[in-house]
Design goal:
This protein is α/β, with parallel strands linked by helices. It has twelve helices and six strands. One of its GO terms (cellular component) is cytosol.
């Protein structure tokens, strides 16, 4: 009799597990259909308990990030929560005597959160370690000096702090090292994972790159020379450079290349003031 009860229990657990799996897959299917139709996730922000930054750290975000100041009051609480979790999730290492302070962590984390704020998954599991040098550093990847790079094998993002800050010092030159390198992280992350945010980013980026085949757009690219030459290195660099232009001068990009502007807006799921 006891054996029979055990079998019934195992069978019941199996049925429950199967039903749960079917339900989860059904929800995933519904959401992907929603993404296909509306070009955005069904929802982005849902948290059980929000983490809040100290007042001095929130003041730092207000002073350094135009993006943060454009958010609503509720969105700012979500932004702070994500910054808190991002810092907790990553390892920060200084090299050649560079001291990693809380301000350094805030600057880096807020950049990542800014770029992923329209995505549900924002911790970027392809990245586990952030290494900061005081200035340009020697890279063993190609035996040259670099300002920044992402190493997918080591899951490491590397910055020259001098050049990181320079990217934010001038907000309208369309040059931002941190934005550029974090887009590379998001690109790799989106290729490795199959969540709805990754699918949104990957699909929109493919559609944007496909615009390069349009003869009229190609002719405008050649005649205006609007984007710097480095954008044409390869498709990954093209995308990263375009996002730099989008973040620093969204309205100017919209005026010059509205097709790219709309695709980047869709790719990042941006629906904020000023973008």
């Amino acid at each position: 009799m006891e054996n029979t009860n055990v079998y019934y229990l195992i069978f019941a657990l199996f049925i429950f597990g199967l039903c749960t799996l079917v339900f989860v897959k059904f929800i995933e299917l519904i959401e992907y259909l929603y993404l296909l139709f509306y070009k955005k996730p069904a929802y982005v922000h849902f948290y059980f308990r929000l983490k809040k930054l100290p007042l001095e750290e929130e003041r730092f975000l207000k002073d350094k990030f135009v993006f943060y100041n454009r958010l609503t009051k509720k969105q700012k609480t979500f932004f702070q929560h994500r910054v808190f979790l991002f810092i907790k999730d990553k390892s920060f290492e200084g090299r050649e005597g560079f001291k990693v302070t809380q301000e350094v962590k805030l600057y880096i984390a807020a950049t990542a959160v800014m770029l992923t704020f329209g995505m549900r998954k924002f911790l970027l599991p392809s990245l586990s370690k952030i290494i900061i040098y005081p200035d340009v550093y020697h890279s063993t990847i190609n035996n040259t000096y670099h300002k920044g790079e992402f190493n997918p094998k080591l899951e490491a993002l590397v910055f020259s702090w001098k050049d990181f800050l320079q990217g934010f010092a001038t907000r309208r030159d369309n040059l931002n090292l941190a934005v550029h390198e974090f887009i590379h992280v998001i690109q790799i992350n989106s290729l490795k994972y199959s969540d709805v945010s990754s699918a949104m980013f990957t699909d929109a980026s493919k559609e944007m790159l496909a615009l390069l085949l349009n003869k009229n757009i190609r002719a405008r690219l050649d005649s205006t020379e609007y984007f710097r030459d480095y954008a044409y290195t390869n498709q990954f660099e093209f995308l990263a450079v375009l996002v730099e232009y989008f973040i620093e001068n969204p309205l100017e990009l919209k005026q010059n290349f509205p097709e790219f502007y709309l695709k980047i807006r869709e790719m990042l799921n941006y629906n904020f003031r000023g973008y």
